[in-house]
Amino acid sequence: MPRVRRVRLSFVPGLDIEFVDRDRAIQQVLEWGERGTRFPVVVFGPEGCGKSAWLRQAAEVLSEGGYEVFYIHPLDRLVHAEVSIPSVKEAFLEFARKALAEDAVGRIAWALFDFVRDLLKVRKARVAIIADDVFQAIGLRYAAAYVKGLLNMIEHPQYSYENIVIIVATSEGLSRAEIGRHRWAWMMPMWNMSREGFEKLYRQIPEPKPSFEEVWRLTGGNPGMLAKLYQARWSMDEAIKNIITSKDLDTFILSLSAEERKWLLEAVENPDTLPAKEKLPLMQKLIELNLIISSITYRDPELWVDQPPPQKDLELGIGKYIAWQTPLHREAVRKALQEVSTA
């Protein structure tokens, strides 16, 4: 793989790190850069698995490859444009500044269509659109329409382009289901980091810290959970309570019937107990809460961004068909179940 500049990212306030590992994912971006993307590539995966970091790196890779790059992460209020036409770049960034000032982040996502067209009107170019969590910004009901608009940009451009790469990421199970109903995107899952790659990230975290084995057992290679543990001064209990509170798991479990709670407890031990007709409503709720990832049956490397998860690792909460997003998500559900049952 050609040597690429690794971007630096804010891990937590006051601590920047270098993007590490994900060599196969970078190689995939290079391949897309060579041939373009026939459909918008919509990447989904666990919250905090590193999609946003990878998208930042993808923008850098494509920019180095001569692409005109529009990058947006509306919810984090991040907008970049590595564009060679100064008037287009300045107009886009000014539009974004006004939209952010008015707290109208969804406008930025829709405006991309106009600014890409303005760019191609000036010259035929290689264009990349990198969009992170746009569906939350524009609203789930518009997710499919937005992806259709991106596909139209590929299939029916108003002005010719040399090549085009479109990558969109989401952690929302609902948006994945909505988009997947149509033929308008190429859906690709992304999993947490490999053990080897995650250890490289772990080494960038200053001491004192728990052993790598303990951190791996708690996070399953999820960078976002590593950041939460670091922020919680390595308190597993505090991190679990944060998940319970943020996802309101107590209320969720109180809404379940006794039988559903029994099913949920079984799923804590083995998530592959969930795919059954009578349990589908419960499974859907867990997907909506971003607690589990479904539809991971096929581990063919070409179907995944970077490396697929192992075939099965119940210690980390990974089944053949269903996986907990991280071991900490699973433990949060376990603790919430215990607290409700003893209340």
Textual characterization of the structure:
This protein has helices at residues 23-35, 51-64, 86-101, 106-122, 134-138, 143-155, 173-180, 195-203, 212-219, 223-231, 236-246, 249-254, 258-269, 280-288, 327-342; strands at 8-12, 15-18, 41-44, 68-73, 78-82, 126-132, 163-170, 186-189, 292-293, 323-324. It has 343 residues and is an alpha/beta fold. The protein folds into 2 domains: 8-189, Rossmann fold; 195-342, no CATH class. The chain has a 6-stranded mixed β-sheet, with helices on both faces. A two-stranded antiparallel sheet has the order 1-2. A two-stranded antiparallel ribbon has the order 9-10. Helix 1 (23-35) crosses helix 2 and helix 3 packs antiparallel against helix 4 (106-122). The longest helix has 17 residues, at 106-122. The model has no long low-confidence stretch (mean pLDDT 95).
Helical amount: 40-55%
- Total count of strands: 10
**How big is the Rg?**
21 Å
| CATH topology name of the largest domain | Rossmann fold
- The strands making up the biggest β-sheet line up spatially as 5-4-6-7-3-8
Q: Any idea what the CATH architecture of the largest domain is?
A: 3-Layer(aba) Sandwich
Q: Please give the count of helices.
A: 15
Average pLDDT? 95
Oligomer class: single chain
